[in-house]
């Protein structure tokens, strides 16, 4: 079998992960909500944008770095929060976090990670953000923010597109629960992947380390993949977000923005950055692709705060297209996830190597030498399908 360093695209890493994992586990990470219209639309939106290169520019030296939120990025990406990575690769959260540190970009730890806030801070020397789901247990929620603050996380990311869980039909058909259990129903699926199953049996099923001690236990609901509807707070509103803004004195990023109206209110409320996101197509199926939502949001934000975009990014050229649209940066979720699921830290590093190399190559082939030049020429660098 080829090593992950002999795989040359994110899709090849995805296929390696698929071959390594039981179907139910792979589908949990790979799938979206309902008919997966939004999941597929995210990817298609990038495919529908073509690049218009400019020639006769000296591109012998290209600088992929940028400054966002007063910090250096080696290229305009941060790692998106991804929950439950340890279900697919033991210590997978740590593997991705270390890869981000190696590439000098921020890593965002999910509330539902299988590594704790403290563990990531202890073992990862790089820049850390913490993604916070708003919990019904408000005392516990603010304790999470305190823990992130004391561990020197430089930003929190509040997710606003998950008042209830999406209907993820792959998980329902696979009888997949979170956290999963070894049962007679799934044993035959798990047994087909001994390289995955044996470490899980020997080491035990990973836990959501950040949620240990919360009043409500995480259990399966008959109508949802998880108990997310019982777990998170669907009453979270603008007043509640303002309380978070007043409480948290460092950078506050809001993820899950799809409406220009919301974007304007977030600017007025004083958040430091937003992420145009539809949760990777895992929540509201039928929501528009993030790249299509981006222009209207950028117009109303008008440069007042940085705007990131995620969803469907599988190539370095996709990052280029997002920046040409006007985004300051991108969040990478499944791309590095596939790398980690395929080969742990080595796979996550390979995924970021691929994206960074492709992004630099796209800049050179397009005649762009800096991120500033991409933003200067903007949509003149793009043509619609």
From TrEMBL:
Cross-referenced InterPro entries: Aldolase_TIM, Alpha-hydoxy_acid_DH_FMN, FMN-dep_DH, FMN_HAD, FMN_hydac_DH_AS
GO BP terms, alphabetized: aerobic respiration
Pfam family, one: FMN_dh
GO molecular function: FMN binding; L-lactate dehydrogenase (NAD+) activity
Keyword Flavoprotein: yes
Parts forming coiled coils: none
Cofactor(s) needed for function: FMN
Residues reported to bind glyoxylate: 133, 168, 279, 282
Keyword Transmembrane: no
Binding, FMN: 81-83, 110, 131, 159, 255, 277, 310-314, 333-334
Entry GO terms, CC: plasma membrane
Keywords attached to this entry: Flavoprotein, FMN, Oxidoreductase
Domain FMN hydroxy acid dehydrogenase: 2-384
UniProt-annotated catalytic positions: 279
Family affiliation: Belongs to the FMN-dependent alpha-hydroxy acid dehydrogenase family.
Descriptive protein name: (S)-mandelate dehydrogenase
